[in-house]
Amino acid sequence: MITLYDYLTELPDKSFSPYAAKVRIVLNYKNLPHRTVFFHPLEIETQIRALNLPPNDLDLKPDGSPRYTIPVLHDEATGEAISDSARIIDYLDRAYPDTPQVTSPSTRVTSFAFESTIQGLLLPHLYLVVGPKAVKLQPGDVRKAYFRSVVEGALGAPIEEWLANPENPQKVWKDVQGAFDVIDGYYRKAEVIAGLGREEEKRVFIGGKGMVYADVALASILVWVWKVLGEESEEWKRLVTWNGGRWGRLHEAIKGYTVVHE
């Protein structure tokens, strides 16, 4: 059995981490049996240490020591325990070559570079409009207070004060849309190079028929926004129509792979 370690929220399915979502999407896409174990966000390092799971040596503290982060995966079949979502997905492709592959030896580096690019484009802006809503989904008053302080540090003001001026979120959402326009350009370029016709231009995945790592990386961010803001929110309804509905199609194609198994 494969165990995916995630952190707890107050959502019905308990999870909104985009990094855990990446791994969960791939596990479900590969149809690999697995379960999810949740840690309280304030107990991540304690719990990981107690289970003798590895820290994330790709995410270092200022002193150079590795952080203890979510997700972590433990595969009982091989005895492997891996931290960091990109590294976990790379492991799943290598360990289970007969399942659908989302990376390849020749594209791994470029896939991870593309992910860094889209994260750099989207997350600084999205955090400002998704973060305030995410505060309410943190488990317990202590975690809520801590997360609120982090979000307000990013906003430069108390959440209520920042939201009271409608120009603040409006400006950020305009920046978010601009970032998606840039990413849409990457998808369009891939379609042009592939010589696709107009009907085919509405394909979902950047690589064609099958899901690749770039799609998973972007879809996991969409999952985070969808879960935190809610499917009926006006912001989400607008987002899925941008760029000819491309992001709505991508989300719908991957939504079935986001199911949490405990």
UniProtKB/TrEMBL annotation:
InterPro entries named in the record: Glutathione_S-Trfase_N, GST_Omega/HSP26, GST_UstS-like_C, Thioredoxin-like_sf
GST N-terminal domain sequence ranges: 7-100
Signal sequence segment: none
SUPFAM superfamilies with a match to the protein in the record: Thioredoxin-like (SSF52833)
Pfam families in the record: GST_C_7, GST_N_2
GO CC annotations on file: cytoplasm
Descriptive protein name: GST N-terminal domain-containing protein
